[in-house]
Write a structure and sequence with these properties.
GO terms for molecular function: fatty acyl-CoA hydrolase activity. The protein is of the alpha/beta class. 22% of the residues lie in helices and 29% in strands. The chain has helices at residues 75-78, 160-166, 181-188, 207-217, 240-249, 256-262, 291-304, 349-370, and strands spanning 2-5, 8-10, 17-20, 27-35, 41-49, 56-57, 81-82, 103-111, 114-123, 129-133, 136-140, 146-151, 171-174, 199-204, 222-228, 233-234, 267-268, 278-283, 309-314, 335-338, 341-344.
Length: 378
């Protein structure tokens, strides 16, 4: 048996791992373990069968568990779960990253009577450099269009989201608060931001409301907008009552009913004044609210205002799969943490991972085309 791996690779690129010199149909166990930025251990152990050539290749081999299908090199990473006794799927939230810190994967492959191992490094953005943004950490690889990331509930990817997007030539700030007009102007005039083109906003969930407000109020500063899993109305915040059952049952909160009940009375989001273009995405199995329905309503409203609009629905995916807040090269989850509460976001291990990969390609292509830049998704 021989193990062939790529020792260093980007966190969202394919995971190259092949086991060769096996007997046809021989059973091989592949285990992967790592530790996130909060020092939480994660791992997975999957069984595969060698093909007729005696090879197991993560890019083409299916696991016996059938946790992902068709085959995908990143599937084994999507299946990783925290190493904590008693944790069920409803207890698993997201894998935590921070800044430019890479993750290290311990890989072990085993057949009867033999085992091999290797240590792999998955980097965020090796050429990115951090600088101080006016309302959060920012990253750049060169002087380029400015992008601001907005999210209501802190993403597990944290500032690594900005670093990953900076890898593709965008000066990206992870906003820890909603930027004021003065902060938008300061970022636009930053040393590493191209002030000859407008800023772009990439937002998720409730923060999309803030993104639309900023884009409409400051069309001279803000052009492209990406809205992942947006609502078409400004919902009130759920009360403590909505989370009481979570404490009693230990299950994550299901907020779909709350949002359905409040949608008719909530104030519609106004997109008048924004210049665009606009990319709107949603998962068909969003468990937080009617993601596809509201994304479609927003897209129709923007198109009626003359904004060039692109609408994408991710089949089988949940609420939290939009890049760069979700990484295709990390474990996927159907639960997220929001200000101390666990919330069901929907989807599946497989669908959420594939959606994150597609979203990465689409977001990078959308932003690059908005600025007439070459598309680089590696």
């Amino acid at each position: 048996m021989e193990l062939d791996v790529k020792a260093v690779s980007g966190i969202n690129t394919p995971l190259y791992l092949r086991v060769t010199d096996l007997r046809p149909n021989e059973r091989v166990r592949v285990s992967v373990s790592t530790v996130d930025s909060h020092r939480q251990p994660w791992s997975t152990d999957q069984a595969f069968r060698a093909n007729e050539l005696g090879v197991v290749d993560l890019a083409t081999s299916l696991p016996e568990s059938a946790q992902w299908e068709p085959a995908h090199s990143l599937g084994i990473l999507w299946s990783m779960r925290p190493d904590s006794a008693g944790l069920g799927e409803d207890d698993v939230s997201a894998f935590d990253l921070n800044g430019l810190s890479p993750i290290h994967l311990n890989v072990r492959v085993r057949i009867k009577g033999e085992g091999l191992g290797s240590l792999l490094q998955r980097t965020i953005a090796r050429n990115a450099h951090q600088f101080d943004g006016p309302c959060g950490p920012a990253f750049h690889t060169k002087r380029g269009p400015g992008v601001i990331l907005l999210i209501d509930a802190p993403a597990s990817t944290n500032s690594a989201s900005a670093a990953a997007l900076a890898h593709h030539g965008f000066a990206t700030m992870y906003a820890t608060s909603t930027p004021s007009a003065a902060e938008l102007e300061r970022f636009h005039r930053s040393e590493f931001v191209d002030a000859t083109v407008p800023l772009a906003l990439v937002a998720h969930g409730r923060a999309c409301t803030k993104a639309f407000e900023l884009a409409a109020a400051h069309p001279e500063l803000i052009g492209p907008v990406v809205a992942h899993s947006p609502s078409d109305v400004a919902f009130p915040n759920p009360s403590r009552q909505e989370f009481r059952r979570t404490k009693l049952t230990g299950k994550p909160a299901d907020l779909a009913g709350f949002h359905a009940a409040h949608r008719a009375q909530a104030t519609p989001i106004d997109v008048a004044g924004m210049t665009g273009p606009l990319l709107v995405t949603a998962g068909t199995e969003d468990a937080v609210w009617d993601g596809v329905g509201m994304a479609g309503a927003l897209a129709e409203k923007a198109e009626a205002m003359g904004v060039e609009t692109f609408l994408v629905a991710y089949s089988g995916a949940g609420h939290m799969c939009g890049y760069p807040f979700a990484f295709p090269g990390l474990p996927t989850a159907t639960v997220m943490r929001d200000h101390g509460h666990r919330i069901r976001v929907g989807g599946s291990i497989d669908a959420n991972g594939r959606a994150a990969q597609i979203s990465r390609q689409q977001v990078i292509s959308f932003l690059a085309s908005s600025y007439d830049m070459p598309v680089t998704t590696l």
